[in-house]
Design goal:
The complex is a heterodimer. By secondary structure, chain A is mainly α. Chain A has 4 helices and no strands. Classes of the chains: A mainly alpha, B mainly alpha.
Chain lengths: 114, 245
C-alpha cells in the first residue's frame, strides 16, 4: 500500500500534520493566558517567537527548495540587500522593499537564463 | 438596547477582519500557496489531499516539511517528529498573541479553536492590526480574518493545482522568494517593542549558525538561545538607559 491510498493518506496527514502543529498552538493558548500583556515574561516570549521566525526566514533565503535551489547565493543575498536599502530609503514601506527585492531576483534569474 | 447593537457590531468586526483577505500579507500568502501547489503537484500528491492539508495543517512551513517527508518515503513516526519539531515555534507565537487578543471574559475553548488559524502570516497581520481594534472585538476580528484566509486558500489550492505545472521557473522562483522577503519587511515594519528588532537580527544570524552546528534542532535552538540573548541584551540596554541621570 502506498501512502496515497484512500483513508490512510488522510490519517497520515491528520496525525503527522494536524496533531503535530495544533498541539503547539494549544499549548501556546494555555501559556499565553497566564501572561500579562505588560510583563517581562511576555517580552521574553516575544523575543523567542521573533527569533524563531527570523531563523525560518534565513533558512528560506540561504537553503531554498525547488527552482531557487539552483540559483546562486550571491543573487539571493543581493536581492535581500537591495530590498533592504530600498525599504529604508522609502521610510520603511514594506511594499517598496518587497517589490525591489523581487525585481532584483527576477532580473538576475533572467540574466542567468532561468 | 445593546444586544441588537452588539450583535451588529460583532458582525461588522468579523467582516472587517474578513476584508483583510485583500491586504498585502494575504495576497502574498496566496501567491506563496500557488508556489506550494507546484511543489505538491511535482510530488504527485492528489489535489483533494492538498486541499485537506491546507485546511487542517495550515502553517505553510509545516506543510512543506510534511510534503518533503512524504516524498522521501518517511514513516509516520518520522514525519510526525519532523513536523512537530518544526512547529514548536507556534507555541511562543500563540502565547505572544493571546494576551493581545483576549479580554477577561474570552472563554478558553474559543482561543483553542481560533489558535488553529495562527501561522506566520496571520500572526504578523494580527500583531500589527489588533492593537487598533477595541479589545472587546479583537477575537471576532481575528476570527473573521483567520477563517476567511484559510477558506480562501483551500479554494485557491483546489483551483490552481492543475495550472501550476506549466509555470516557467523564473515565476516559480520569484513566488517562492516572496515569502521570506515579506516576513522580513513586515516584522520590522510592525514591531512595537524594541526587543523585536534585536530578536529579528539575532535570529537571522542564529538560524544558519545552528543549522551548521545542530541541523536537527536548528530553528528551535535559534529561537530559544537567540531570543533569550536578544531579550537579555535589550533589557540590559533598557536598564542602563533608565539608570542614566
Amino acid at each position: 500500500m502506498t501512502w496515497t491510498d484512500g483513508w490512510w493518506a488522510y490519517a497520515f496527514i491528520a496525525i503527522a500534520g494536524w496533531i503535530a502543529t495544533d498541539l503547539w498552538r494549544w499549548l501556546g493558548v494555555l501559556a499565553g493566558k497566564r501572561l500579562r500583556d505588560d510583563s517581562e515574561a511576555l517580552n521574553w516570549v516575544r523575543a523567542v517567537a521573533t527569533a524563531l521566525v527570523a531563523a525560518v526566514i534565513a533558512k528560506l533565503i540561504l537553503y531554498p527548495t525547488g527552482v531557487l535551489a539552483q540559483s546562486p547565493l550571491w543573487l539571493r543575498a543581493g536581492a535581500v540587500v537591495f530590498g533592504t536599502i530600498a525599504f529604508f530609503l522609502a521610510r520603511q514601506k514594506p511594499v517598496v522593499g518587497i517589490a525591489t527585492s523581487i525585481a532584483v531576483l527576477a532580473i538576475g534569474l533572467w540574466w542567468l537564463g532561468f | 438596547m445593546d444586544d441588537v447593537e452588539d450583535e451588529r457590531s460583532r458582525l461588522a468586526w468579523f467582516l472587517t477582519g474578513a476584508r483583510g483577505i485583500f491586504s498585502l500579507p494575504a495576497v502574498i500568502l496566496m501567491l506563496s500557496f500557488v508556489g506550494f501547489c507546484s511543489l505538491t503537484a511535482q510530488a504527485g500528491i492528489p489535489p483533494e489531499q492538498v486541499v485537506f492539508m491546507t485546511g487542517i495543517v495550515w502553517a505553510l512551513p509545516a506543510k512543506v516539511i510534511l510534503v518533503s517527508s512524504i516524498m522521501s518515503g518517511a514513516s509516520l513516526a518520522a514525519a510526525f517528529l519532523a513536523v512537530t519539531l518544526s512547529s514548536v515555534r507556534l507555541m511562543p507565537m500563540v502565547a505572544a498573541l493571546v494576551p493581545e487578543l483576549r479580554n477577561s471574559r474570552t472563554p478558553t475553548w474559543l482561543l483553542l479553536v481560533l489558535s488553529h488559524f495562527v501561522a506566520i502570516t496571520a500572526w504578523v497581520f494580527a500583531m500589527e492590526r489588533v492593537p487598533k481594534v477595541p479589545r472587546d472585538h479583537r477575537v471576532t476580528f481575528f476570527a473573521g480574518f483567520g477563517i476567511t484566509l484559510v477558506a480562501a486558500n483551500m479554494v485557491l489550492v483546489g483551483v490552481v493545482y492543475h495550472l501550476v505545472a506549466e509555470f516557467p521557473p523564473l515565476v516559480a522562483g520569484c513566488l517562492f522568494f516572496l515569502t521570506p522577503i515579506y516576513f522580513l519587511a513586515s516584522i520590522w515594519h510592525s514591531a512595537r517593542h524594541p526587543v523585536i528588532y534585536v530578536a529579528l537580527a539575532i535570529g537571522l544570524v542564529a538560524g544558519p549558525l545552528f543549522y551548521w552546528i545542530a541541523p536537527e534542532f536548528d530553528i528551535l535552538l535559534a529561537g530559544v538561545v537567540g531570543g533569550t540573548l536578544a531579550w537579555g541584551a535589550e533589557r540590559l540596554w533598557r536598564s542602563r538607559r533608565e539608570a542614566r541621570p
